[in-house]
Amino acid sequence: MLHKIDWYIIRKFLGTFFYAIALIISISIVFDISENIDDFMAKDVPLKAIVFDYYLNFVPYFANLFSGLFTFIAVIYFTSKLAYNTEIIAILCSGVSFNRLMRPYLVGAAVIALFSYLLGNYVIPPANKKKVEFRNTYIGTRRPGNERNIHQQIEPGVFVYMQSYNASNDVGYKFTLETFNERKLASKLSADYIKWDREKKKWVIHDYTLRTIDGNTEKISQGIVKDTTLNMLPDDYQVVENIVETMTLPTLNESISNLKLRGVNTIDYEIEKHKRRSGPFSAFILTIIGVSLASRKIKGGIGFHLGLGLLLSFSYILFMQVTTVFATSGTLAPWMAMWIPNIIYGGLAFYLYRRAAR
Predict the structure, then answer these.
(1) 295 neighbors 234 (Cβ within 8 angstroms)
(2) Which helix H or strand E contains 173, and what residues bound it?
(3) Which residues pair with 211 in a beta bridge?
(4) The dihedral of CA 227, 229, 230, 235: what is its sign?
(5) What is the DSSP letter of 49?
C-alpha cells in the first residue's frame, strides 16, 4: 500500500528526473542544431523532415543515454532538500523505518527502469533507423562498403565463399557454394560472380561450374546464367555503422542466432544485448546509493551531495566503458562485462544502505 507521503516522494523523484532529462535534451538539441545547421541549409532539407524525421527521433536516444546519470542526480537533489528541511527526520520520528522509507524510491526506480528498458529495446532502434534514413536521404553520408574474403555458413551444411563483395551494385566475385551431407561434400558450385536481381528478389549466378558428388560418382555441369534462392540477402553484406543500434530486441536476438550459424563474430551484438538488459537495473542501484548518501544532514550541504553523486555517476559510466573494452577484445564474456559494474556498485549500494539504516 502506498500512502500520501509515498506519493509525495514519488512525485518529487520522478518530477525532478523528467525535468532534468527535458533540460539536458533541450541543451543537446541546441548544440546539435548549431553543429548541423550548415548541412541542413546547404542541402535544403525541409523543416518538417528536420523536426519529425530527425529531432523527434533524436529525443528518445538522449533520454535513455542520460537516464542513469539523472536518476542519481534527481535522488541526490530532492532527498538532500528533504533532509535539510528536516522532513526525513520528521518521517522517521513518526515511526516509519528507513526500510519503509525506501519503498516509494524503489517504486520510482522501477518506473525509470521500465522506461529505460522500453526505450532501449523497442523505441530507440526504430528511431535510430529513421535518423539514418534521414541522413542518407538529405545529408548523403551513406558509403557502401566492399567486403573481402567472405567465408560463412548460411544454413546447416551449406557454406559460401566470395573473394570480394561490392555493396554498391550487389555483386559478389569468385563465388563458391559448398553443400555437405553428413560432413561429406555433396556438391560444389563455382562461379565468376553472383548478382542480386532486385526485381526477382533472387541471386543470379554467372559463368558457373557445378560438381555433384554421389559416393564414388562425380557429375560436372556448366552454365552461363542460373537463378537460385539462398539464405542470404544483400543487407547481410552492407557496411552499416552502428547497425546494432537500429535493431529491436527480437531482431537483435535473431541476428545473433543467424550470425553464429554463419560463423560471424557476434561480440558487438552480444555487448549491445547485455547492455540493454543491465542498463535499466542500474536505476535501482543508483537510487539506493543516492538515498543512502543524501538522507542525512552533513557539512557541505546539497552541494557536497551533488558533487559526490556526480563523482560516483561518472565513475560508474567510466567503469562500464572499461569493461566494454575488455569484452570487445575478448578478455571478458559480454554478459560478464556488462554486469560487473552493476555487481560492484550493487555491493556498494548494499553497504551504504546498511550503514544509513543504522
Answers:
(1) no
(2) strand 171-181
(3) 188, 220
(4) positive
(5) I
Predicted TM-score of the model (pTM): 0.74
* Of the candidates 240, 249, 251, 254, the residue with the CA atom closest to the CA atom of residue 274: 249
- Distance CA(310)–CA(22), nearest Å, equals 18
Beta pairing class for 146-155 and 202-214: unpaired
Q: Domain residue spans in the chain?
A: 4-140+266-357, 146-238
CA 81, 85, 87, 90: dihedral to nearest 10 degrees? Answer: 150
Could you give the CA distance from residue 258 to residue 242 in angstroms, rounded to a whole number?
18
Q: Side chain identity at 115, as an amino acid letter?
A: F
Please tell me the distance from the alpha carbon of residue 103 to that of residue 44, in angstroms, as a whole number: 53
Instruction: Please report which helix (H) or strand (E) contains residue 178, including its range.
Output: strand 171-181
> What pLDDT is attached to residue 240?
57
> Edge-to-edge strands of the sheet including 146-155?
146-155, 158-166, 171-181, 184-197, 202-214, 217-228
Looking up cell 519529425 gives 52
Q: What angle do CA 279, 275, 27 make, to 5 degrees?
A: 60
Find the angle CA(285)-CA(329)-CA(251) to the nearest 5 degrees. 65
What was the pLDDT predicted at 300?
59
pLDDT, residue 315, reads 86
Specify the length of the chain in residues. 358
pLDDT at residue number 18: 92
Averaged pLDDT, groups of 10, the chain, 358 residues long: 87 92 90 89 88 90 85 87 84 86 93 94 91 80 62 85 84 91 88 89 91 86 87 72 81 85 80 90 91 77 72 82 86 90 92 83
Q: What does the alpha-carbon distance between residue 275 and residue 331 come to, in Å, rounded to a whole number?
A: 17
Q: Are 53 and 264 in contact (CB under 8 A)?
A: no
Strands 202-214 and 171-181: unpaired
The CA-based angle 87-89-93, given to 5 degrees, is: 120
The tally of CA atoms less than 13 A away on the side-chain side of residue 288 is 21
